[in-house]
Amino acid sequence: MIIRPRGEDIKIIGYYLGKIILGLAFIMVVPIGVSLIFGETNPLFDFLIAFEISLAFGIILTWICKTEKDLSWMQGMIVVSLSWIVATLLGALPFYLSGHWQSYLDACFDAMSGFATTGLALVQDLDHLSYAHNFWRHLIMFVGGQGIVIVALSFLVKGFSGAFKMYMGEARDERIMPNVIHSSRFIWLVSIVYLLLGTVVLGLTGMMLGMKPLNAFFHGACIFMAAFDTGGFAPQSQNILYYHSFAFEIITIIIMVLGALNFKLHYHLWMGNRKEVLRNIETKALFFSVVVTFSVVAVGLLQAGVYPGAMTLLRKGFYQLISGHTGTGFQTVYAMQFKNDWSQLSTVGLICAMGLGGAVCSTTGAIKMLRVGIVWKALLEDVKRIILPERAVVVQKFHHVKEVFLEDKQVRSALLVTLIYLGLYCFGALVGMFLGYPFLDSLFESTSAAANVGLSCGITNSAMPGVLKVTYMLQMWAGRLEFMSIFTLIGFFVALCKGK
Amino acid sequence: MYALGLVSVFFFLCGPAWGQSVSSDELLKNSGRYEGKRVTYEGEVIGDIMRRGRYAWLNVRDQARAIGIWAEVSLLTQIAFTGHYKSRGDIISVTGIFHNSCLEHGGDLDIHAQTIRILSRGKEIPEVVSPKKKKLSLMLLGAIILLWTLTHLLHK
Q1: Per the domain annotation, does A490 fall within a domain?
Q2: Which of A450, A453, A452, A455 is closest to A424 using CA atoms?
Q3: Which residue in A has a C-alpha nearest to residue B50's C-alpha?
Q4: Has residue A432 been placed in a domain?
Q5: What is the domain class of B2-124 according to CATH?
Q6: A135 assigned to some structural domain
Q7: pTM reported for the whole predicted model
Q8: Which one is predicted more confidently, B109 or B1?
Q9: Residue A352 belongs to what H/E stretch?
Q10: Contact B58, B44 (CB under 8 A)
Q11: Interface membership of B81 toward A (CB under 8 Å)
């Protein structure tokens, strides 16, 4: 028998959702500041309006649903999944008001793409977008990469138990520190320290490349946020190609890889335990995966004969590979070049890299390296069982911060999530094909959306069918939250309708 | 007459290489045809002009996308405006050698400029503040103050 949710459940969900909306509203103060600094009056009003609407919703919800109770698992998961939808709807308001998005749906698409750190974009005339709106595009990547809920956990939520449930609902499986609120604050500390360092490095590099100082540091901050949060937005329409700089590419590669590492690993690095980087199953799996997928991409590019010389092949091929594998989506080639110049083999290599992703508890998406490593270890264990004498006791372990014995429960969980991701990639590809797009293009774009990468072969543009825009948005949402909170939300609504 | 016809066809087929501009779409779709050839490309100068010694990068945008132009600094002195939020950049015509993957520049798609001509001058765009947005933001501010006051009074 399905039990219908009680009014009490809805009240608790409403209260914590209201808290998160208030957090989002206060984040909008930052682009308000940017518009004042750059003297941009229309953007100032765009963000004031969005701020006021968000504040109003937040005040109403927290007032009507006022409660002292803590969250249950179900309620926590629903708060998480709903907060991402609400953040998208409210975060899209300043975009829509700017006039640079053809419709509110397009604005929501970019808002979801930003919060989910994907990077697919429908913005029109990006090269004439205001500093404030451009900064908002990148700031929502910074917030989304850390986790919208983590913003609330760090500053607005007092109860630890409910906080932990929301933390887990936002695809953060790992506790970095014993207390989840301290874990959230640590994630912010790491991100802000890197943001300051990264902005300075990129800003100075930009100046040496010939950019004006103000633009160099503005771009530096934006590119850092997009790189570390493996998002992939850039301030100009040419993306990273705008800078025409090998130095810029190297720096962004370093930042992208940092963003793709587990925050737990960052903790150990900060505590001086550098050996963990070499021993960890995720870094080993990532290294191996990059080597294999780059080999496929490189052979494909050699076959296509597009890039003259080893250096150009390395620069273009490796950069796109790392950008795809870390889930960032920075491009130094035009979308049409993926279609026209890259061979099918190199495109398949890139799709595999996008589909695999980076580490768990990082800013990246996709299947993730811990699961890949676990599945690989499980395969080795099964092979050993077959090869070794029947009486032999086969025990497999792996190193992930500590030595962990491989259990069936972990393998089952890893395989289940992997299958769901593969299903999600195929689903988006099928929708694309139903709408008339070629198979490989559809699979490329679908994987890019669902794995929160953002590389595009040209399908994503404002003229694409609305059905496909909604499909990619749902994929970005599902891919970012890793399904559990979304399944809980679906179950909640089913129970609301059919429950007794 | 026959020879004249042949020459006309020849010029027609080689049109873009002989002065007619090509779009970025055309260059990307038929990159093999234009690789290493002299082309003419037109568009708005956007962003910063990035000096790198005797040369500089500028990015020029047509209807579809921006392309990087590598040019000697001496060719760029005539450019007065570049496109940003508050300005429209100069519309220029660039004639130069097209590379789909430039060996000199790490495989970038670019044009090495030989000549640059200003077609129309850009300008600063004064911001016209929307009165509707002003009104809406004031109304919402009033609503929030009311809401906040109400919640506080009811809480007491």
Answers
A1: yes
A2: A450
A3: A210
A4: no
A5: mainly beta
A6: yes
A7: 0.93
A8: B109
A9: helix A344-356
A10: no
A11: no
